[in-house]
Amino acid sequence: MRVLLSKLSRPWLVDEKKDDGYTALHLAALNSHVEVAELLVIQGKANMDLQNVNLQTALHLAVERQHVQIVRLLVREGCNLNVQDKDGDTPLHEALRHHTLSQLRQLQDMPDVSVSKLVMGLGSQGSDKKSSASIACFLAANGADLTIKNKKGQTPLDLCPDPNLSKALAKCYREKSVEATERVMTSSRSSGAASGGDPAGDASTAAAAAEECMVCSDNKRDVLFQPCGHVCTCASCADRVKKCLICRREVLSHSELEDCIICSDKRASVMFRPCQHMVACHSCATLMKKCVKCRAPVEARVPLAVCCGLEGPDSGGDLSDSDLGATGGAPNNPASAAAAAAAAAAAAANAAAAAAAGPGRMATNAAGAQRPMNNHSDVQKLQQQLQDIKEQTMCPVCLDRLKNMIFLCGHGTCQMCGDRMQECPICRKTVEKRILLYC
Is 370 part of a structural domain of the chain? Predict the structure, then answer.
């Protein structure tokens, strides 16, 4: 594998899929080829978040087969821990399901062990059970989300009847969150001291507070209220709220925020006015002139930070296209400037938390987002594919005209070059017959 990767002229072939969607990294993770997987990830720069036909990533397969070394490698190199398969299960779902099934098998094999002792984790523990439990704790400690529900409405903790393991998972998750928060606060204080003031620190604190649900403070805000357009609760608490907690207006309907309808890489974070739909992320929203959901013209774009109330309930919160740009000019009013600063601080906080998750390449475990697309490799891939198409369709003699004459040997040239040929320029066989292509 090392020789193949060193001689590979087309780097994008590392991520090529079979008919079933499996890449080389999928197969290495499935069969526990640790060295091969390490070469593919580090030397071959393989995309660790690609999914097969069942929407499983390499991490799903490694967790399912209990390959601990592969799991450790993928997490260390920054794979996304919260990708869901066709059933909505994350790798943490798989680990805890495997743990529960091992307990049930133990119950069948050892009828003298009481159910209560088994569920409490007091029975004899096999290596299989220890492995699945350790993988689950490892994933939770590195940022796997404990609140994601699969298509059956189950969170990872719903699949874990062991209360001791549930407590351990919650503890690992809290410690990871506290550690990320401390890093963010430290970086905010240092940046504030370097700039000679603390507005950035205040904005970062406000942005962090604006992310958590105003009711339970456990989950992130992910529900958009109508008609006010504010985001202040999580999906679990939204049904209990009759009036918006920010503006006190009556809530007539609410919708849960989903992934961007365009790129599907990030969560929708920009609300369109006047339709008040939030269906696109920051990058895609700046390109839209009409809402992709209702086709209504977009008159204004409101970022998620404003919908969360960072500008205050009395502020309009309308931002122009220039305010949404990543490197645009100054906002049109002071309120917009404050919101932009808070949004930038929130983005910096997320980036700092993600960077803390892995030492090598940028990790995206804490935020659960996809790794940024490598534009250079994508351009290189497209250029190579274009070159392949040219080689297949252009005349190999003059390299100027399309290939439209075929010899009996199977090779071809353009008609102008073929009429002069007595031997095939590829295999040197005598040209007995020339066949023109009219397609």
Answer: no
